[in-house]
């Protein structure tokens, strides 16, 4: 629909071509003809308007040519009739071209809709509230037509507490989408059965090893996923985090202060156990009331401006929250903060997304004294 409106907004262009042709013919000597411009008008209309518009442009172009030729006394079999036939033939060709473009556009739109359904199936939006937390998610693909790439997230309420996964698989294209689906499936099963985070990670590693054994080439030895896996206490006072080579979560306090929850020691991404094993520490962090935990992928942290400077979420989040507070009289919720963050990153990078961006925000309940506030 947006593309249709954009094309209709430029439907005046072929008429401008006709006007220019008429003016050029009037102000130039008789020996100079504007017939080539008039012949071009239906071609220009082919991608900017519909069949009726193309036919109308062709008829007007033929009429304009006939009138100009009559004015110059040059209409005849040698020039006038040949140009008229050319305009008519090109108008017919433009109608066929418009039909082909419309058919390709319809096929592309159906493919886009199919990709959207697949994206919702592979990476569904989390519920707005789960386990006492308010939740929001954003996915910004580097390829806006693809809708989904190699980033993933999932929030799941399990017998062991609310568990969260955010990750970024190696590679692009359909292979990355398949890896995303496999990672999500492994997490869904392991999160419901593993009693603690180390065993959950071990179960996911086993699934990744099994998948790698079925692959060939680099994916068999170099397929990996950077990930953060988190588990919330039932009372939401603490969160336990395992970081497997991924950007750390950001803890955004209600006063705007934001800190990165850095891991106590480095750990490799998931899927590299064929190269050896490294212990991944479980780090525990306190969660103040109304605090918001943001999980992001490196598409955000590595977004650059035209000068090559990286985006700095720790510096920008307090500013974005403060601006929302001044405009709306209250701190932003998860959806509002992510919306502001996505637009701020787009502004920083001048609208050029070089990598997929997945963002997930979970906000703890407000303290009892704020229970009456919205």
Q: Kindly state the percentage of residues in helix.
A: 40-55%
Mean pLDDT: 82
- Low-confidence parts: 1-5
Note the run of SSEs as H and E. Answer: HHHHHEEEEHHHEEEEEEHHHE
**Domains, number:** 2
Q: What's the overall geometry?
A: elongated
Please report the distance between the alpha carbons of the first and last residues: 36 Å
Please tell me the CATH architecture of the largest domain by its name.
4-Layer Sandwich
Which structural category do the helix and sheet elements fall into? Answer: alpha+beta
- What is the beta-strand fraction? 15-25%
- Under CATH, the homologous superfamily of the largest domain reads PPM-type phosphatase domain
In the sheet with the most strands, the strands line up as 1-2-11-10-7-8
Q: Regarding CATH, which class of the largest domain?
A: Alpha Beta
Question: How many strands?
Answer: 11
How is the main sheet built? 6 strands, antiparallel
Summed up, the helix count is: 11
Our Rg estimate from Cα atoms comes to 30 Å
Assembly context of the chains: single chain
For this structure, the CATH topology of the largest domain is: Phosphatase 2c, domain 1
Structure description:
The chain has 374 residues and is α+β, with helices and mostly antiparallel strands. It has 2 domains: 2-116, no CATH class; 125-370, PPM-type phosphatase domain (Phosphatase 2c, domain 1, 4-Layer Sandwich), CATH 3.60.40.10. Helices cover 47% and strands 17% of the residues. It has 11 helices and 11 strands. The strands form 2 sheets. Strands 1-2-11-10-7-8 form a 6-stranded antiparallel beta sheet. Strands 3-4-5-6-9 form a 5-stranded antiparallel beta sheet, with helices on one face. Helix 3 (35-46) runs parallel beside helix 5, helix 4 packs antiparallel against helix 5 and helix 6 (173-193) packs antiparallel against helix 7 (197-213). The longest helix is centred in the N-terminal third of the chain and has 43 residues, at 80-122. Residues 1-5 have low confidence and may be disordered.
């Amino acid at each position: 629909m947006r593309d249709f409106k954009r094309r209709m907004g430029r439907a005046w262009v072929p008429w401008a071509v006709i006007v220019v042709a008429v003016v050029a013919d009037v102000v130039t000597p008789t020996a100079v003809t504007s017939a080539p411009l008039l012949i071009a008008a239906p071609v220009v209309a082919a991608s900017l308007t519909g069949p009726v518009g193309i036919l109308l442009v062709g008829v007007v172009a033929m009429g304009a040519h006939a009138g100009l030729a009559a004015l110059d006394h040059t209409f005849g079999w040698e020039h006038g009739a040949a140009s008229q036939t050319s305009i008519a033939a090109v108008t017919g060709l433009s109608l066929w071209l418009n039909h082909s473009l419309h058919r390709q556009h319809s096929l592309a739109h159906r493919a886009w809709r199919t990709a959207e359904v697949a994206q919702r199936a592979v990476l569904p939006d989390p519920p707005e509230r789960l386990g006492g937390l308010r939740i929001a998610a954003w996915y910004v693909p580097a390829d806006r037509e693809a809708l989904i790439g190699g980033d993933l997230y999932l929030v799941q309420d399990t017998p062991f507490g609310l568990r969260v996964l955010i990750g970024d698989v190696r590679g692009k294209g359909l292979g990355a989408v398949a890896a995303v689906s496999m990672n999500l499936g492994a997490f869904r099963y392991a999160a419901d059965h593993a009693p603690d985070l180390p065993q959950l990670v071990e179960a996911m590693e086993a699934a990744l090893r099994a998948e790698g054994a079925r692959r060939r080439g680099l994916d068999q030895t170099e397929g990996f996923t950077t990930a953060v896996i988190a588990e919330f206490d039932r009372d939401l006072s603490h969160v336990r985090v395992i970081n497997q080579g991924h950007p750390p979560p950001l803890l955004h306090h209600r006063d705007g202060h934001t800190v990165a929850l850095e891991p106590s020691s480095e750990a490799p991404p998931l899927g590299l156990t064929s190269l050896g094993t490294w212990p991944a520490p479980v780090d525990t962090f306190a969660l103040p009331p109304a605090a918001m935990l943001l999980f992001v992928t490196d598409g955000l942290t590595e977004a650059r401006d035209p000068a090559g400077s990286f985006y700095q979420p720790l510096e920008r989040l307090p500013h974005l929250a403060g601006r929302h507070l001044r405009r709306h009289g209250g701190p932003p919720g998860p959806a509002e903060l992510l919306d502001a963050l996505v637009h701020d990153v787009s502004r920083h990078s001048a609208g050029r997304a070089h990598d997929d961006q997945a963002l997930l925000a979970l906000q703890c309940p407000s303290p009892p004294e704020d229970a009456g506030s919205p």
